[in-house]
UniProtKB/TrEMBL annotation:
This is CsbD family protein. It comes from the Bacteria. The lineage of its organism: Bacteria, Pseudomonadati, Pseudomonadota, Alphaproteobacteria, Rhodospirillales. Transmembrane segments: none annotated. Residues 4-56 form the CsbD-like domain. SUPFAM superfamilies: Hypothetical protein YjbJ. Belongs to the UPF0337 (CsbD) family. It holds the Pfam family CsbD.
């Protein structure tokens, strides 16, 4: 995968994340660009939910969007 494909894949994922969790800011997403693991922490902070719930939501998101996630 080249750099352009990776950037395009990230833009697609970013759009899906914004649809799912609209309270996440562009700054949050910029931080996440390099680390998918930080997503649940950002969701937990923005939505004031338990860590377990945030992780559950992220797992569901990953399962639903597995075709995109493999490119992240």
């Amino acid at each position: 995968m080249n750099k352009d494909q990776a950037a395009g894949g990230w833009k697609e994922i970013k759009g899906k994340i914004k649809q799912q969790w609209g309270k996440l800011t562009d700054d949050d997403l910029t931080v996440l660009e390099g680390s998918a693991d930080e997503l649940s922490g950002r969701i937990q902070k923005r939505y004031g939910i338990a860590k377990e719930e945030a992780e559950k939501q992220v797992k569901t998101f990953r399962d639903t969007n597995s075709d995109l996630i493999t490119r992240w």
